[in-house]
Amino acid sequence: MSASADAAVALGSRASTAGALRRDARRERRVLIGLSMPAVALVLVFMVLPVGWLFWLSLFDDSGAVSLVNYVRIFTKQTYLNSFSVTFTVSLTVTLLCIGLGYPVAYLLSELPRRVAGLLMAAVMLPYWTSVLVRTYAWLILLQRSGLINEWAQHLGLISEPLPLANNLTGTVIGMTHIMLPFFILPLYAAMRSIDRIYMTAAASLGASPTRAFWTIFVPLSVQGLAAGSFLVFVLCMGFYVTPAVLGGGRVIMMAQQIERSITLYSNWGAASALGVALLAMTVLVLAIGALIGKLLFRPRGGDR
Amino acid sequence: MQIVNTSPGIRIEGLGKRYGAVAALDDVSLNIAGGEFMTLLGPSGSGKSTLLMVLAGFVRPDCGEIIIGDTPIVTTPPHRRNIGMVFQRHALFPHMSVFDNIAYPLRLRGVGKAEIAEKVEHVLALVRLEGYQRRRVDQLSGGQSQRVAVARAIVFSPQILLMDEPLSALDKNLREQLQTELRALHDELHLTTVYVTHDQREALTMSDRITVMAKGRVAQVDTAKGIFEKPANSFVAQFIGETTLIPVSFSGDGFDVLGTHVAGVRPSEAARRHFLVLRPGAVEVCAAGETAPDFIYFSGTATRPIFEGESVLHQVVCEGGVTVQSRGLARMPAPPSCAGNGAVSLRLHRSNILLVPEAAA
């Protein structure tokens, strides 16, 4: 066989393998798409369609005519506006309390050896594995007028009158903070674990006291985890139903309850749908603001001009 | 602007530190002169890093004292010791720019804005990174990161500078370049430096003096030349250079080694077990049977030589199966007998005969 014939064979086989490789890549893509189909179908049927249906319903008034009356009502009726402001206040308070209570816990966990941290983490997560309803009623037992806390405090002479701990905003916030804490601690702990402790050592060698090093090095490095936990808690709070319903004693009407009332009390699907859409929009807005803050805050300093 | 005027000496007295049953530091005493470049050299687990961490204040010793200048500091917390430190991993704060990293120790000390800018510029020039102030830490290469780390460690005029294997994460060429730069920086600043490494070449090329450590103890303190030429015992000899240690037995007024009697060489302490130190650079391959008055000879069988580029490593199996290495420049013609395998002789000049006692267990 001549040299040119050899080259031709080599070229031909190269072309044929290129085709085979392309076909192989296509097949792999098809398999991957196929594997994701069940999940996509699930989201489509149980998320996209209901939300779309909700949005559709919210566009009709009581007589069945297309109108924006449901949305107009949200922004004009005092009960709804109150509901918005209560939802916002509760969510913000719970988030701030989670930061105050959760940050030290996450810090402690991240400083401990992994084995011990694992045990303590289980303690943090234990309540999370019990039903929200059970935990909420447990708090009711503790906090109510004749509950454990009030009874004991009175026996000990710390207070003369029972404190109004349940069936109000205080009870709601206490119960929700307890339920939300694991959601806050988990991402923050993960973020803190990933901070190399050599930075603290370096800071000390440069003359920073432990307190100074904590505030100038550790806290800034943990702020992304802090933000992740905070936004998670805030968003979860906005749609919370059980705890405010039980511990609020009918005085703390958050958005989710307002929606429930619209349906069970007034069977007004239009109003309920509009509230749902508004809640969704608010949540998206909060997340968007969070993403924006994140971009501004965590844009690495310096950089090429 | 002068970063350091006079750097104090360090006196280490009877330092001890145990981790359970293991003595990381065992009665370590050491004097480091002001302005000296002292390297702590030893294998892993020799206690060199522990000693550095004790100096920096991150490890609390069980006993002993450290005196910098005239000040005992063993109970001073690390952030009040005013000691610059460079770590193995650069440990630059990832949320700060190069400028903010270097300015950090100055801001802690309440230095004014203009002075900070001036000092940062000055140290960046010292480590040859002019104009890098606004760079992000993750935009730096390994070598640049380590230069910034050095700049940050010296900008606040520390009393002394500690470096914990600062170049071990870099590739060979960069490492050698930075060795030269760090040494030049030291010659400029005369900052008392304690440098930890497990790389004997690095220690030999950079240091004023070297402290060889083994099992938490000081094995030998000497200049690079002194350590290389007069190792205190078999451990030091083994650790420095590609040394082959051959046990010797004393007889008459000399000793026997590899089937050869060497007359007229006796160490003062002949009761201890001794070794002959054979280094590839001191041993030459020659034709079998050659004799000359100033040399001692061992006969053996040459195996295939190893081509190393600029040099060639000859390996000769001597009596008792001991392999002795000899390194020659590659451009020199190979000894006649080394073209293939076969019987050759190895010669060692009498002035290069070096006997070391066995290291205490």
Structure description:
The complex is a heterodimer of chains A (305) and B (361). Chain A contains twelve helices and no strands. Chain A has two domains: 1-40; 77-298, MetI-like (MetI-like fold, Orthogonal Bundle). Chain A is an all-alpha fold and 305 residues long. Chain B is α+β, with helices and mostly antiparallel strands and 361 residues long. Chain B has eight helices and 21 strands. The longest helix of chain B is centred in the middle third of the chain and has 18 residues, at 172-189. Chain B is elongated. Chain B starts with 9 loop residues before the first strand and ends with a strand. Classes of the chains: A mainly alpha (305), B alpha+beta (361).
Radius of gyration of chain B: 25 Å
Helix content of chain B: 10-25%
- Tell me, briefly, the overall form of chain B: elongated
What's the main sheet of chain A like? Answer: none
Question: Portion of residues in helices of chain A?
Answer: over 70%
The major pleated sheet of chain B works out as:
6 strands, mixed
| Count of DSSP strands of chain B | 21
- Chain oligomer state: heterodimer
β content of chain B, as a range? 25-35%
Overall residue-averaged pLDDT value of chain A:
86
Give the CATH level 1 class of the largest domain in chain B: Alpha Beta
Q: What gyration radius of chain A follows from the Cα positions, in whole Å?
A: 28 Å
Query: How do the SSEs of chain B run, as a string of H and E?
Result: EEEHEEEHHHEHEHEEHHEEEEEEEEEEE
